[in-house]
């Protein structure tokens, strides 16, 4: 096709001097989303994108198939409060999952339907937490993708509102005291009380009395601490113990305190240090048996479970119950005590495949395994707070929509508790786990999903993330299935920076080690080519958020290796990323340009700063979301302008800029449209005939 000219974008002579190094930034003017010239440029990019994509074949087919596969719906594991349960479910025709409750008599009722709250589909349910008796529900909603959660409380039996909204509650846990009269929660300070530009930070832990004005909330914790701290808070089932956790941004470590709020008081808890200034992540569970269970990666990067007395919670008093495994990574646990021999269920991932073991609760001895439906991913294991012999967990794999499984410790059997409600015809695929070596010899695992019996090089999408300790595990994906059904291969690399091999694997891909992540992706691509799965002209890469940074770095470091790129909600200007969105909470993962040595790391790979004129870059589609308050779309705007200016090949550089959508949850119809656009673009530029 005859390519349309790119929208004009002026290049300014903006150069910063950072630690004696000149850093050009010719498109800084695009950082202002409210400037008329930015608006004009975005409108021109939208026109170009619509024109280019509209000329490509296959979009209607992809859209229809992704929508059809998403009609499977979803279902979530139950949360029990007494004889009442709460769970999420999305039926085939719903835009959002709905929160349901089932009363003691077994009657099911929709409790919170985001579409009923807002027929436009722009409202999302961010979080929810019933009180300990199941009579009240705290929930948080946001609008238009901004993730600015407002907190409400409702009466579960009647569905009537009790109070709210309470604003500034983004990422707030809710820890109820027994009786439902009060809860601890986390709230940001008012904008007027913080420096300009820091409105997303400065969180505090408060005690709130239901029905009282928030002005009467009691400040419990956080005053004078690090501005980027995130806080966790929990209250034991009997209401005696309070735990408070603090982590600087997304750091893989936390400080931790406990208080006996019967001996002190809920309003003035006397907090005792569990760990402080320790390079480890630790969480606490106060058992029904009076013991304190400690989940930690302290001296155990793959995780272990210890026990102690709540009165002596410090590490010197911990005793290993389930020690670290040499290969598997501990993910979660549950306690089942209404059996002759009380047990602990321990969830693990072994090279990203889930399994659950059964252990004697007193000695930790491994005495069995929980049967699982297949080689897939298990969601959080839940139990009844008051104890019992049953546990529930979510399960999915590459061809199985989400299900909920029930395990009975008395019989040792696992049965299906709930399936996703929609009946869909899922295409047959072949999934293989392969191992390849990265540039430094490190072994990396990769899942390769292909049509059955596929032979010879074929269009392939390579996906990765590689950050924040997040693992790439098998799961039902309408986009992946639609691509493979059309004849392509989809590969998911378990790169360093993730959590597939524990915390050491994460740290091998963060801060000064970030280049390892990019090397792992390049090595994955080379392995797919060397083994005949694909060829450079049929290979695409895709990633979002931190994965957008990944593919942005990849396309600038090895433009010869990839035919096409989808880069979604990315971080790309790693010199100025801390100034926008939630960027300042991520310098514990990436480093800060304010520090000379960390600036050197960032500058060495920052994608925006490595675009070079006259290079033949892959066809690239940036997809960003105007209401994204985590990663500002300016990263993609600036990078798009730079690539359009530099591109020497006849491969398009396009921008898809979506309004009233954010970084996270969205309506199903928006998900379908985005997937159809991305798959159509990648199919065309890798030669997949749809």
UniProtKB/TrEMBL annotation:
Keyword list, A-Z: Hydrolase, Protease, Serine protease
InterPro entries assigned to the protein according to its UniProt record, in alphabetical order: AB_hydrolase_fold, Pept_S9_AS, Pept_S9A_N, Peptidase_S9_cat, Peptidase_S9A, Prolyl_oligopep/macrocyclase
Domain Peptidase S9A N-terminal: start-end pairs: 7-418
Its EC number(s): 3.4.21.26
PROSITE patterns: PRO_ENDOPEP_SER (PS00708)
Every Peptidase S9 prolyl oligopeptidase catalytic domain range: 479-687
Protein name: prolyl oligopeptidase
Species assigned in the record: Planomonospora alba
